Fold this sequence. Notes:
Layout: E1 7-8, H1 9-16, H2 20-28, E2 36-37, E3 43-45, H3 47-61, H4 66-73, H5 79-110, H6 114-124, H7 128-143, H8 150-158, H9 169-182, H10 185-203, H11 212-227, H12 238-252, H13 258-270, H14 274-287, H15 296-311
Helix pairs in contact: 5-6, 5-9, 6-9, 7-10, 9-14, 11-12, 11-15, 13-15
Amino acid sequence: MNGxxxxxxxxxxxxxxxxxxxxxxxxxxxxxxxxxxxPAGYRLYDIDAVTRLDLVRxxxxxxxxxxxxxxxxxxxxxVPEVAAAHADALDVQIRTLRLRRSVLRAVARRGSTTEELxxxxxxxxxxxxxxxxxxxxxxxxxxxxxxxxxxxxAMMRSAMPQLPDDAAPEQVEAWVELAELCQDADFxxxxxxxxxxxxxxxxxxxxTGLHHDLTxxxxxQVGEALAAGIQPASxxxxxxxxxLTALYAETFGRAxxxxxxxxxxxxLEAGADPRAEHYWRLLSIINGWSVPPTLAPVFSWFIxxxxxxxxx
Length: 312
């Protein structure tokens, strides 16, 4: 057949691999209109119709709607423009499907109720801005109006939950739990008390900021004591306690005496709520960070050792 040949609808179906019904549909929709009619009134199509139908099938396989396809065929839109727009739309759909998959897997793991499923789905659907707004609202409520430790508040604000598009079920679970924790009135009150303690210390002249070196020293020295089976109320705990209180005394410019140890107990207990540590653990899971080991046993040992020495 040459380029001027006309094809009956059955011939066109065989050449394109489409059904007669599909070609008739596209023809009636004006997307691939017939070139001519036979004397008996049957539709006839030229070689251009074959090309158009091949493009229509490709675009439909990619998920484009008929209105967009018509605009491409009528040259109102270029193929690159359509491809870019459709790729963006598919990105959104893929993110949504991945999130739904993660929520469903998390529900399956947790054995959630219908109410929990609704909550997980609604919290998981929040945008990144909405997630940050929820956490910032918690921080504002806890630290607002107080001259608390500015380094600590800045650290809180810089560490925002960033749930990835392809979040794993455990990341979705962690975000839901973090969101619930941030909205828990009792936890907010506990963090507020910690912030008030920080503000009171700053009002008394303590503007030394965060003390990661002290935390490291406590973790290492008490960790060794725990590994050695040393009980905090035993005489064997005394050298560890003396070493640590000497570090605190040097850092804060205070005498290493009973007043320092009473102050230390108050300071440590103000930040000893296990939910605060859990907050950071959840945040690490959400953001794919290395999850820090718990320091609860370490500081519990330290506080008990301090109290024991003070009571003697």
